[in-house]
């Protein structure tokens, strides 16, 4: 099963993709997580990406396309994957189609998590992320068992640099301008699957499992 999760910042892409990957045993490929790891490792592309990410701007397409081309060519993706945060522009969507064509693979669907703006702002401003394993928490909606500590690995929780008010506003604008056009793009391809992402985490997950099971192979 090969799916893309689309949705505004804070829609729950990372939260749901992680659960799906675990349940179905397929890789969760999150470009934001990959970029944050490169920043942490101080690689050349990480240093370049950081300046864009902190402002809430998109990192240049060619960097992301290179990352995804390498990642999808890995044999662990041949049975399926969940893409989270890619594609985010029409150029990236075109590149994804040609990468998959070359690998003789096809997407099963593009799941669009629909969440109203006031909800995503509330979700992002109180999000906390594990510094070691990247798991997402929310102070109110999905709190860790012990404050400031990851349930899974005991890692320290922190607030992402781009979860500050100014950066959130910019990310939402960037999403509307550059990523929202992908909804039409995938509708035209017959791949769009809209999902109500405003429900609570477990209810959204149930809906996603129903969709995924429908195409399981
Ligand atoms: P990225 O890391 O992908 O950030 P994003 O798209 O802004 O999405 P988020 O991770 O903020 O939200 P999410 O949908 O994953 O929500 P989450 O599950 O955490 O990208 C960061 C940056 O990297 C970009 O700005 C850009 O610079 C760069 N980048 C990445 N990919 C790129 C690309 N392809 N091209 C160019 N640049 C790229 O949930 C949010 C919060 O809500 C959490 O606290 C969670 O606990 C809570 N929550 C989740 N679901 C629910 C629910 N149903 N009810 C209540 N709370 C919930
Ligand atoms: Mg995310
Ligand atoms: Zn952790």
Could you walk me through the main structural features you see in this protein, from its secondary elements to its overall organization?
With 217 residues, the protein is an alpha/beta fold. It has helices spanning 13-24, 31-40, 44-55, 61-72, 90-102, 117-125, 165-179, 181-188, 201-214; strands at 2-6, 28-30, 81-84, 109-114, 127-130, 136-138, 157-158, 192-196. It has a five-stranded parallel beta sheet with strand order 2-3-1-4-8, sandwiched between helices. A hairpin with a 5-residue loop joins strand 5 and strand 6 (136-138). The chain is globular and about 45 Å long. Magnesium ion binds next to helix 1. Magnesium ion (MG) binds at residues 13-14, 30, 32.
Topology:
Elements: E1 2-6, H1 13-24, E2 28-30, H2 31-40, H3 44-55, H4 61-72, E3 81-84, H5 90-102, E4 109-114, H6 117-125, E5 127-130, E6 136-138, E7 157-158, H7 165-179, H8 181-188, E8 192-196, H9 201-214
Parallel strand pairs: 1-3, 1-4, 2-3, 4-8
Antiparallel strand pairs: 5-6, 5-7
Short key terms for the protein model shown above:
alpha/beta, Rossmann fold, 5-stranded parallel beta sheet, binds BIS(adenosine)-5'-pentaphosphate, binds magnesium ion, binds zinc ion
Number of helices: 9
Report the CATH topology name. Answer: Rossmann fold
Shape: globular
> What's the main sheet like?
5 strands, parallel
What class do helices, strands and sheet pairing give? Answer: alpha/beta
List low-confidence stretches.
none
* Quaternary structure state of the chains depicted: single chain
Our count of domains comes out at: 1
Q: Can you give the helix content as a percent range?
A: 40-55%
> Mind telling me the C-alpha Rg?
16 Å
**Which strand order do you get reading across the main beta sheet?**
2-3-1-4-8
Summarize model confidence as the mean pLDDT: 95
The fourth-level CATH homologous superfamily is P-loop containing nucleotide triphosphate hydrolases
């Amino acid at each position: 099963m090969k799916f893309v999760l689309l949705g505004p910042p804070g829609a729950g892409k990372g939260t749901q993709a992680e659960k799906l990957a675990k349940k179905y045993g397929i890789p969760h490929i999150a470009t934001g997580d990959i970029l944050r790891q490169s920043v942490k490792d101080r690689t050349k592309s990480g240093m370049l990406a950081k300046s864009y990410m902190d402002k809430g701007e998109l990192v240049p397409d060619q960097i992301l396309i290179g990352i995804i081309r390498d990642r999808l060519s890995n044999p662990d993706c041949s049975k399926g994957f969940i893409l989270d945060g890619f594609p985010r522009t029409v150029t990236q969507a075109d590149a994804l189609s040609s990468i998959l064509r070359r690998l003789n693979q096809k997407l099963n669907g593009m799941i669009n998590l629909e969440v109203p703006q006031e909800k995503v702002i509330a979700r992002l401003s109180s999000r906390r992320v594990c510094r070691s394993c990247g798991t997402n928490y929310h102070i109110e909606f999905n709190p860790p068992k012990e404050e400031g500590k990851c349930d899974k690995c005991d890692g320290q929780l922190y607030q992402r640099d781009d979860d500050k008010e100014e950066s959130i506003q910019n990310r939402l604008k960037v999403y509307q301008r550059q990523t929202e056009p992908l909804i039409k793009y995938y509708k035209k391809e017959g791949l769009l699957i809209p999902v109500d992402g405003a429900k609570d985490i477990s209810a959204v997950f149930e809906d996603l499992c129903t969709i995924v099971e429908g195409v399981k192979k």
